[in-house]
Amino acid sequence: MTVLVFEDVWKRYGDKVALSGVSFDVRRGEVFGLLGPNGAGKTTSIRVLMDIVRADSGRVTLFGEALRREHLNRLSYLPEERGLYTKQKVIDVMVYFGKLKGLGGVEARARARSWLERIGLSSTENQHIERLSKGMSQKVQLAATLLSEPELCVLDEPFSGLDPVNTALVRDLIAEIRASGRTTILSTHQMSMVETLCDRVALLSEGRLMVYGEVNEVRRRHSASELRVGVGGELPELAEVERVVAEKPGTYRLLLADGADPQRVLERLVAARVPVERWEKVLAPMEDIFIRVVKNGRGEA
Amino acid sequence: MIRWSKVRTVAWFELSSTVRRLGYLIVTLGMPVFAVLYGALALIPAYFAKQQEQATRVYGVVDQARVLGLAAGESESVRSAVFKSFADEAAARAELLEKRGIRSYFVVVPDYLESGRVLAHSAEGGSLGPWEGRDELNELLRTRLLGTRVEPKVAARLVKPIAGRETFRVAGDGQVLAEGSDAYIGRLILPIGFVFLLFTSILMSGSYLIQATATEKENKVVEVLLSSASADEIMTGKLLGLGGAGLLQVVVWLGMTLGVRFGFAELVMPFHVQVSWQAVAIAPVLFITAYAFLGSLMLGTGSFGGNVRESQQLGMFWAFLATLPMMFLPLLLADPHSLVAHVLTFIPFSAPATLVFRMSIDPAAISSWEIAGSISVLLLSTWAAVRIASRLFRVGLLLTGARPSLREIIRQARIAP
Q: Which domains, from first to last, does chain B contain?
């Protein structure tokens, strides 16, 4: 079941086209990666979704209905460029954000305390934000975002500025959200996190949707040109292979020529009576796909 | 459609966080203390001047025209001034410089009756004006010139033609009502107080509004707010919350002023304050509408600033327009129902103050259609200002980097959610 549908969404600022007919959908309970280089249109997409800016054309459907302001209480947003009221107390800011999402004062306060305990910041409840470290502020903001237990949570670069311990904490929180059946849109430049956390991705570049689909499927689609083989003897000369990288004795990574069929490589090895112990397509890392797609400017979506 | 629960949340947050700020508390409670101290300091020279005025002052007079009828060495008192007669200038000079028995001396020249000339002499290096004591000398000359030439009663009136003043006001129904001679000032207290209150509130609240908005823009909190509430709701909440903070400040100041007024009535406000109840009834409506009108414009334009200072420069432009009626005050005082007054009644920036001004001075001469028309213009303008400002507010808040063209701002504002 889809919670969000973008259909042919366009948005421009002056002469700059921020979104150029972008279409994708996000399914309930998944972690959806919204990827792209800076200026690709990710923030604009999120702002359109959050009803902060309105699209010039196209359709945005949320929870099966056209986007309405009333939906905002069911969403929550952690922006990339974030900040808090530095002169205010931690608890007051969290309660304020909770109340803005429709929680009552008492409930917001109780939830804020519970979240502070969860992220290990109970002792900072009555401290002014300006006295917190950057990492602590980030955690407070993330907790304030999740306070209202939103059905759809949009996290823009939630890992930036966090140390490995806190990165792991945030990663676990996102996993928990998914486990509870709620949906997350994750925008990040950390491709390792995308591979670990995301079910599906949409990669934008210059306002256009370049890559879209399940993470493993996307990686498979972009991995046709690379094989990992384990053989019992010498590797014969193979016409389909452009370059061979020896990973360890008997294991090779084969970079295939354009248009070469990986199946044909296996056939040739068998024909050459080379004992084949391992034969697999190498899944391209998301980082490589990201760089290749953005550099070439050619997508597949 | 505005969701008032969101407005209430924003308003309460803005109000509670502002009134707890140390700077706010210092200004709110410290300003009246400062004003009282300043006033007390200003009263010190006034007190000594009054003491000096009541003390006996001795002047010399050399009557060469022989109109005063005083022999050398004789003295005559007029109120707190004493005029001591000298035979010649040398004797008066010696008294001034050597004995220092007189403050200055006057020479009534021989052809005084023809020329009216009197020569004033004061000591070199003295800080006194040579003509100190002139009023008393005038009175002495008038009294002595009239002498027995006219009846004593006529002479008294010639010396002081208006000795007592009583003031009456003829009401619209022809009834003659007695009032104090300072009643006119009393009638001006309400409108001037209203304009002062409005302007101060707008300045204080406007400053808080712009500061809070610019800080949110700098802090990047604004996107979180806009993802939870609409620009209209945030703006209205801010207007109410920070307006409340500004108003609370003014109420505290007003309370302290009234406390001083009742505590030191004769010293601070020696006249009777008269109010027009129509003006009093309408003033709160006008006050709130005018604040919403100007405050929203200030917020809308202030949101385009890149930082607090820039935002204040952009937003404060509107605050000066609120002082428009003060610029026309002499004209309004001269004729509260002139063409200028009629025009100002229908300009939204000047309507509130002008209306209260006119209703306070002469409530009978302002027609009900004019009151209704003025309020309608103000309400319509406020509605339009809030609508436009909330769109500008949203565009302005999200603006970073280079400022877009006016055309692009209008386009974005038109399609803003």
A: 4-32+181-415 (no CATH), 55-164 (3.40.190)
